[in-house]
Amino acid sequence: MPVSPLDNQPLSQRPLQAGWQHGLVAPGAPRKSTQALSKANATDALAVRFGSQDLSPTLLQSMGRSSKKFLAGVFQPATENFLVGIMIIDFFAVWLPRIWNALTRGAYEYEPNKDPKLAGKTGLDRKLHEWTERAKRLNIPNGIEETWREVLSGPFLFIWPTLFFSMAKRGYGQKAVEMPVPTLRQFSQTFAAKMKSVPAHLGATPEEMKTYNRAFIDHLLSDTTTHARPMVKPTLHQSELAKHLKPTYGEFFKSWSRQLVDTLHQLDESPTAGAKKTLESLRKQFVEAVETYNRHYRPEKAFFNYDKIRVNLLDSLKSTAQRAVYKDELMGAETFFENLVQWHDFTKTAAANRGKAALKHLDWPNLIERVRRNVTTLKAGYTVSTVLITTAILIQLTKWTQSYENYEANRLMQLGGDNNNASPTADAPTSERDAATTSPPTQTRRQTRRQTERLAPHVPGAPGLPGVPGTPATRYRAPYNPLSAGPVVNGLPLLTFSVPGSTPQNRGGYAFGAGYGMAPTEWKGGYR
Amino acid sequence: MSRPVSFNPAQPHFGQALDGGLSPSRRQLSRLAEGFLQADQHVDHFFNQTLGLKKMGKGNPLRWVGQLGQWVLGKFGKQDMTVFKTAFGIPIRFAIPTGAAVGSLMVMMYWGLAYARAKRGYDRGLMPNGQRDKREMWDAIRRDVWSISLYIFGIGWAESSFAKLSEKLAGINLFGKGGQSVKTYSDLATNSRLENAKVFAAHLKHGNRDGLLWAAQNNADLGLPKLVRQRNPQLADKLVALIKEFRQVLSPLDKLDTKALNMDRHQTLVTKTSEKAVELLGKMDVLRNSFVESEAKVLAAKQGGAVADHLAKLGKQVPEFRDFFTNYTKLNRSPADLLGFLALLVLIGYAPIWFNRWWTEREYAKYQSQKRHPQPAMDRPANTNPHRPGTVQLQLTSRHLSTPVVEPAFPKTQSLSQQALLTGLSPLPRPVFPSPLQGFQPSLTNVTAWPPTPQNSFPDRFYALSPLK
Q1: CB contact (8 A) between residue A398 and residue B113
Q2: B307-338, pLDDT tens digit by residue?
């Protein structure tokens, strides 16, 4: 294989290539070898081009790698953590486009040609003036409504479940409520089957519980093939496992389970930083041990499952009350570790219940089953409550944020004689509409609303300011009056079908709208 | 979080003999709770066993309908909240209703967001003339039902569609053996560490041959870290020689077919190449480790701080050579994610907005055109308001034909306005309302007292007769 003499020179001494000043090639980067080692290179651009002598990436390669690295840094948490993913998508795909749309839909038009203030202005001054004028005409009320609604609704999907389960974790079963229900059942039934041999009179002191738990974890990890095999030294440079190697995997798991149970009990007594660090180290050791084992002993079969371990659990399909049958289940090492930590809280609850006089008559398996059923029932209760309350909060949130009685987005496109907004409408004569749309409202809606409130502070049905565009007349609801309970058309009540949830109180503004609508010049005394 | 066991409620199991000493009603309640949290498995059982969906012929349309129902109800039945993770560096474990609890998410999003917004749009769509403006309601339905469905069902689809493209372009296996979903970055990191020759050979056999060769060719993935060249040129030269040798060792693999069968036929070549390649990677890592350790000691002496801290920092700048394929797979998955994200951005974010805007304006243009060019009188229903073609109105004729004209809304409104004026703060001109007792006769005085200008935007049905037209 021909090797370019340039490769032996330091980068700084290499000659510059044509095009480096345009950023196409990094200064000092060696020429690409044009000679291909394989035939595929000559025919197919996508085929492997093998044998390039470059060991420094070109500028383009570097840029490509940097951007991919950045993307991987963003997308790794986004794809592996639904909360992060949904918030990123929410921000870019919901907040930004919807808020901008809300601001621009129903915005007053601005025509620079008709603006006398623009005369003589050029360049940035002109642009600034234009942008300012356009900004003044944005549909701010609609934008505010949209912003509150969207920004609050995404996080609320997670806030209440988090709060609720945080509270739940302090109650019965503690962290065991976080376990998947099938896993909890498998663990508890396997544990119960093992505890069958333990006499009911035996107590549940911490020391005794430690013994049971150690035996239980040893049983879970008692896969015979794993146990017998010698332990492999990991190749990781900074390995947690390297310091805790044992002759066989069986011995390692045994000593590891003792340390884990001791550490969890220690954390119950005093959650020190040291104990937490030990727990983290135990997690790393376990995961590393599982991965190393799979890579060395099951590289073909466990491909793409290097992080999974076979756990010896009760086979719920074959086991009966008389006979317990076990089988190996593949579980992720991280998940398994997390489940063991949660399981510790379960056994703590069982131990606490063992001491209760009312439960003295139960043997160990039945006591375990009782705790499991209670935890499951509570979890179902937490879940239903969480979902219902979050849904109710979200429904209320929509009402809070969309508190206007009219849809501001359509303020320039009113249908059927609505005067929800005393603003220039498309129904108005063209000349007047143009005049209104080219000049911004004389004051903001908020100012108008305040002014209206100041003028008529105690009157819910007070009118807006006639002639002032943007007067939110229908912001105020008419008080309920049974006589005026229906909408009025041309002075006569209109029969309408009642809609559940729609009361005269929430038909915002029609009563006052009818007041405007009853324009003296138009009213002909009804149709009769 | 994986759910390791399939649950078949029809089968007896060990737990059946245990009742925990609970009363029958408590036992019933706990069974109900368990059934609720595993409703998806009951759904599967119902469709597969009770309805016998799998036994139906593949061309049977009932099977398709059933499968769709099973899929939707199966998603809805996932209520078991099992994902608790930290996010954004906040030291709180958030409860994330996804995976096994996607049904909860569906309830919260469809009812709490889509339904609530559509309902609010419906409620506030009532116009003064009694008609209902449903544009906001339909806006909300089109936008939210679509985008929520994509949130729940579409993210995985976007990921896997583009990952297939990435697989071909980067020559890597992103789905695993017969996998339906894309492997996560963590899975790729775990899987792609070339710790020994057997793992290397497994990668060659499982569709990663092209990727391995390209990664070895690509200087960024298997190249010389800049830091090594800057600090220790002699060590850099040694590493360069090893990298070149590594490439040389791999070159015969280029000719092999990617099919597993052919890989097995060339077992000897694959095994020998893998052994040699991993041996070289091991040598590179020995050099790399010695460099990192010596550099960490030097930095600790110069800058202070613990050697371990410097070691950790340098570890990121000079990655291990056994991990070069990990970097390659992770980096080559990211463009697929970007494309998927952009697709979602358009589909969730912009498409419904553009569509809604276009649709609303189109509907409004239709409405305007109908108003300007009303239908002929013959087409109208008998009891139609002549000023609003197409609008059916039912009048309380029995009451109004026999009594003087009474407009029920006015007295209340008028009195309220008078109350406002009585406060003495209002400069509002007093509106002149028709008296409920004597009816109303239009006069010039009334018009000047409160002129119905377009700024007041009185209803178009009056505008048709307005002298200001």
Answers
A1: yes
A2: 888 988 888 888 899 999 999 999 999 999 99
Residue B379 pLDDT more than 70?
no
- If one compares A469 and B111, the residue with the highest pLDDT of the two is B111
Is residue A416 within 8 A of residue B459, CB to CB? The reply is yes
Does B138 lie at the interface with A, CB-CB under 8 angstroms? no
Q: Does B372 touch chain A (CB under 8 A)?
A: no
Chain B residues closer than 8 Å to A48 by CB: 171, 210, 213-214, 217, 254
Q: What is the ipTM of this complex?
A: 0.75
Whether residue A470 has pLDDT greater than 70: no
User: Quick check: B468 contacting A, CB < 8 Å?
Assistant: yes
pTM of the model: 0.74
pLDDT in tens, A124-168: 999 999 999 999 999 999 999 999 999 999 998 999 899 989 988
**Residue to test with chain A: of B41, B124, B410, most A Cβ within 10 A:** B124
Residue of A66, A104, A432, A492 to mutate for B, most B C-beta atoms under 10 A: A492
